[in-house]
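B., you asked whether I could sanity-check this one before it goes into the benchmark set. Here's the sequence:
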Amino acid sequence: MITPYLLFEGNCSEALAFYQQVFDCQPAMVMPYSDYVPEGAAAPPADLPGWVLHAEMSILGTNFWFADEVGEVPPGRKVRLTATVPTRDKAQTLFDRLKEGAEITLPPVVTFYSAFHAALTDRFGVMWDIVAEQAPPEDAQLDFAG
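And here's what the prediction gave me:
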């Protein structure tokens, strides 16, 4: 499945409310940052706990993902595509195929929500996240805190 992922800079909640009104729909899930601080965030904003770590909303039959990014999101970089596949192996295969000539923005990692998550901008300038639905092993050493 390919899911559009819309990125914001601290105003994701406002965008969700706006799109909810425009398209007459409801967010399926909204997860705030709360106590989570992304790796590499040297000086996270004071109001980060209220920002949106991840949200999902169905708009006109298409599932969209939303998030506030800690750091600047340049114009033209506010939309990523997320390829969600069943297994870590399938995710690795997609990553290996897409990485030719790509800029890797997140090397493959095990997270609190997945056995595989990676991100890159392919050789055509399209930004991709690749996520396995497979849960991380119980004894997995996470590559970043969650």
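One thing to flag: The helical segments are 12-23, 88-98. Otherwise nothing jumped out at me.
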